[in-house]
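User: For my dataset I need records formatted as: sequence, then structure tokens, nothing else. Please produce one.
Assistant:
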Amino acid sequence: MIQRIQSVFLLLLALCMLSMLALPLWHKADGLTHQELTLTAFGFDAVGMTPPKDLGPVFLIAVLAVASAATAVREIFMFRNRFGQLKLGMLNLLFIVATFGLGFYFSNKGEALLNPKLEGQFQPAFYLPTLAMMLNLLANRFIRRDEQLVRSADRLR
């Protein structure tokens, strides 16, 4: 059934990962030179300086975020196959961890581009994979609880 609590958790997970596409992950500004560098899920946005080009495929953050959201939505509609849901939940956990890791990796690469003495700030989208990970773990917990309930009902027959 779609109205189960784990479906709500999975829907919130998908919304968290999709909102990463619209929000900045990291920002650094130099007050003396008026240069700013912002990391988004699609790349670096630079103000007052030339945008960096050779930092690697930053768009992988967006690809992994969309893959995680799509996996969560697919997981919602597999309510008759709880083992399949648990497998997709583990795959989604890998997507979320990879998204978080790439965000951290590219923010560290961005730190070196502007004044190294200044420190950049992590923006709200950087923390969304952590929230998504907790929602995924909660959804998997309730899916396992449903499976245990079905097994106990089968033993009573």
